[in-house]
Design brief:
Shape: globular
Number of domains: 2
Number of strands: 12
CATH class of the largest domain: Alpha Beta
Order of helices and strands: EEEHEEHEHHHEHEHEEEEHHHHHH
Structural class: alpha/beta
Largest sheet: 6 strands, mixed
Strand order of the largest sheet: 6-7-8-3-9-10
CATH architecture of the largest domain: 3-Layer(aba) Sandwich
Strand content: 15-25%
CATH superfamily of the largest domain: P-loop containing nucleotide triphosphate hydrolases
CATH topology of the largest domain: Rossmann fold
Helix content: 25-40%
Amino acid sequence: MIEFINISKYYDGRAALKDVNLEISEGEFAFLIGASGSGKTTLIKLLIREENPSHGKIYFYDTEITKLRESQISKLRREIGIVFQDFKLLPHKNLYENIAFALEVSGKNHRDIEETVKYVLELVDLSDRADAFPNEISGGEKQKIAIARAIANNPKVLIADEPTGNLDSKSSWEIVNLLQKINEWGTTVIMATHGSEFVEKLGKRVIELERGELISDSIRSEKPAIPVTSAPTSEPQAKDKTEKLEKVIPKPIKKKKKKKKIIEKEFEISFSTKQNIQQIPKVTKKTKKRKGEDVVDLHKLKLSPELEERLILRGISSIKKLKQLTGNKLLKSKGFVFKEIKTINKALEKNS
C-alpha cells in the first residue's frame, strides 16, 4: 500500500532521513517511534506530499507520489486522514461544525454531512457535546474530535502524529483504543509516538528511526493489552466507553471522482472533489417480473428505487433473505456502505 524506496531528505546539508526503505501493507497498525529529531515527522510530511524527498521514490498503491503535480496532491490527501498532537481544531466553530467543515470542503451534500457527523460523534462518545466549542472541552475530548474529523471521509490511511503527547495516561489509552477500533474497520493506521507503554503492550508492528535511519522494524509483543485507565494492569479490554464502537464501518465502494477545487486557508490541509455517485436505473415492472414474485415482498420495505434495485441485482429479492444478511459484515460483502445498511435496518424494523 505504501512503499518508501531509498528515501533521503536533507535540510541545509543536514540529513533528516538517510536511505530509508519501508513498506506498509493495507490494514496494518504500525507504531513509528524514535526520539525528537529522528525523522518521524519528516517521514509523515513526505507521505502527504507536504514536502518532496531529496532522493528516492514513494508509492501510494500504484502511484508514485513524488511525481505528483500540485493539482494532484489534493487527491492523494483525500485518501489520508491526519491527527496532530495539537488537535488543529477551528476555535470559532463548535464540535459539530469542525467535523462538518471537512466534509463540506470535500463536496458532500447537507444530508450526507448531517448523517456522517452524528455517526462519528457517537463513535467517539461525544454526541452530547456537539454544540460545545474547543475551549470548552478537555484535551482528550479535543483529540477524539480530531479523530472523528479525520475519519469522516473514510480515508484509506489514518496518520496520528503524537496524538497522545499532550494527554494524561487515561485519555491516552482511550485514544489508542479508539485508533485500534478504526484499524479493525480496515483503515491502515500509522501512529508516531514516544509512548513506550503503548508500544510494549499492544503487540503491533514497531518501526524505529534514529538520526534519520531505520534501525528496527519488528513486533514488540505478542500479548496485546488495551486498558483505558491511568494505570494499565490487566489484559482484558475495557468496555466502558468502547461498547459503542462495536459496530464496524464498512469501507466505501470505490467510485469515480471528478475534480473540484475548493480553497480554504484556515484548514491546514486542502481537500477537493465531489464524489460522482453512479446512477443506478430505477426498478421497473419488467425487472420485478423477471426477478420473481418475492420482489413484491421486498417492495413492502418502501426503500428508494435505487436501493431496491441494487438489492435485486445482488440476488437479495425478499425480506426473508434480507433479514439473513442484516449484519454489517454480510451486507458489506455484498457491496453496501454503512449509510445504506443503516437505511435497510430501519426499514426492516418498521416492517416488523
